[in-house]
Design goal:
With about 220 residues, this protein is of the alpha/beta class. Helix content is about 50%, strand content about 10%. The chain has helices spanning about 15-30, 35-45, 50-60, 65-80, 85-95, 110-120, 130-135, 140-150, 165-175, 205-210; strands at about 5, 100-105, 130, 160-165, 180-185, 200. The protein is elongated. The structure holds magnesium ion. Magnesium ion binds near residues 8, 10 and 11.
């Protein structure tokens, strides 16, 4: 099997939940939103956010600020808050030194996902970053894994690994693409669907260590 690993970004290599909660809190305070409105705001951005999301938020709360400004403020906050521990960055470098090709496949817009990968320093430690917007397909669709592999000069048919926290997006998708999988549990129990990952680790550091000790 070729040494190819496709990593998820959000809540795998960078934390999204913490920065998102901080943004909801700051935005709610700034616009004097009550508890109900605050919960509703979280629903808008829980899964993903894009420029259109802020048109809806602006309408919902009757804000004077333009949707474009709201989006760019959100983008700046999320990029500024995206961090990846040094030991994880070092782990990625070690994988590459050992001959692994590393590509990120992430569901989301190119502008925000690239901003996070850049601000966190991850972009300097991987071969490519592939977003669903660029691929024209979202995980778990096989097409995004195919394009991600091709984007770093690998051939998906020769196998590889997917590492991510998404049971459906990363594990089901990775298996459908013919890849081996490591689920980042964050100490959650595996949801017990009809499939299972090849390995479960609590965090990405352990997943990298596991890859470094596999044959390929
Ligand atoms: Mg994720």
């Amino acid at each position: 099997m070729q040494r190819l690993v496709i990593f998820d970004l959000d809540n795998t290599l960078v934390d999204r939940q913490g920065p998102l909660a901080d943004w909801v809190s700051a935005f709610s305070k700034q616009h004097a939103l009550n508890d109900d409105a605050r919960l509703h705001l979280l629903q808008f951005v829980r899964e993903r956010a894009c420029p259109e999301t802020f048109e809806a938020i602006r309408d919902q709360y009757g804000l004077a600020t333009s949707a474009a400004t709201l989006w760019s403020d959100y983008l700046a906050h999320m990029a500024r808050s995206a961090t990846c521990p040094t030991y994880v960055l070092k782990g990625l470098s070690t994988l590459r030194r050992d001959g692994w090709k590393i590509v990120i496949a992430t569901n989301g817009g190119t502008e925000i996902q690239t901003a996070k990968a850049t601000a966190s320093g991850i972009v300097d430690h991987v071969d490519a970053v592939y977003t669903s917007e660029a691929a024209g397909a979202r995980k778990p669709e096989v097409l995004i894994f195919e394009k991600a592999a091709a984007g770093c000069g690998a051939d998906l048919s020769l196998g590889g690994w997917v590492v991510g926290d998404g049971a459906d997006t990363d594990i089901r998708g990775g298996r459908a693409a013919g890849l081996r999988t490591i689920w980042i549990s964050g100490s959650r129990p595996w949801p017990g669907r009809d499939i299972a990952p090849d390995h479960i680790t609590a965090d990405v550091r352990q997943a990298i260590e596991l890859l470094l000790t596999t044959e390929s």
